């Protein structure tokens, strides 16, 4: 049986119009973690310039403006491997190709809570999932995102 794939989902809770330093840093920091764990990185609602049409172009642009992750080397590797994904805000749910949704929060729903061992078993059983991290001072908008998935237990 094929192993599942984990995706690190970065959900833009900052400005939906202007690309900020926090966006750049989050992507650059997620890339080496994703490579180390054979995961993808997906952005949701990031205000990339419309001229940046491919993941390689986005990675090159972010890499040219950061010293994180060996000046963006890991981000470029991720993009070249087809593992840097970009999506609009998930208004009607997260893309199904990413698998099950696991929402990271400091207020997990007891009925939906999962732990690392559970997630590792999912991967071993061939189930893919996206870990959704809310960026910004308030994390994820609970009304829009939390009802859509499991929440990790501490």
Short summary of the structure?
This protein has 154 residues and is an alpha/beta fold.
Task: Kindly describe this structure.
The model has no long low-confidence stretch (mean pLDDT 85). The two termini are 29 Å apart. Strand 1, helix 1 and strand 2 form a beta-alpha-beta unit. It is globular and about 40 Å long. The strands form two sheets. It has a five-stranded parallel beta sheet. The chain has a two-stranded parallel ribbon with strand order 5-7. With 154 residues, the chain is an alpha/beta fold. It has a single domain (6-152), classed as SPOUT methyltransferase, trefoil knot domain (Alpha/beta knot, 3-Layer(aba) Sandwich), CATH 3.40.1280.10. It has four helices and seven strands; from the N terminus they run βαβααβββαββ.
The count of β-strands is 7
Strand content: 15-25%
CATH superfamily: SPOUT methyltransferase, trefoil knot domain
Number of helices: 4
Helix coverage percent: 25-40%
How far the N terminus sits from the C terminus, by CA atoms, comes to: 29 Å
Fold-level CATH name: Alpha/beta knot
């Amino acid at each position: 049986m094929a192993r599942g794939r984990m995706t690190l989902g970065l959900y833009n809770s900052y400005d939906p119009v202007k690309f900020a330093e926090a966006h750049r840093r989050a992507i650059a920091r997620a890339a080496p973690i994703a490579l180390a764990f054979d995961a993808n990185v997906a952005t949701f609602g990031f205000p990339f310039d419309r001229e940046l049409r491919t993941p390689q172009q986005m990675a090159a642009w972010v890499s040219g403006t950061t010293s994180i992750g060996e000046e963006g080397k890991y981000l470029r590797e991720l993009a070249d491997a087809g593992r840097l994904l970009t999506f609009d805000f998930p208004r009607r749910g997260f893309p199904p190709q990413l698998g099950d949704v696991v929402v990271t929060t400091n207020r997990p729903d007891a009925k939906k809570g999962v732990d690392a061992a559970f997630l590792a078993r999912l991967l071993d059983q061939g189930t893919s999932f996206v870990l959704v991290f809310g960026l910004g001072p308030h994390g994820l908008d609970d009304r829009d995102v939390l009802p859509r998935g499991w929440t990790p237990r501490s």
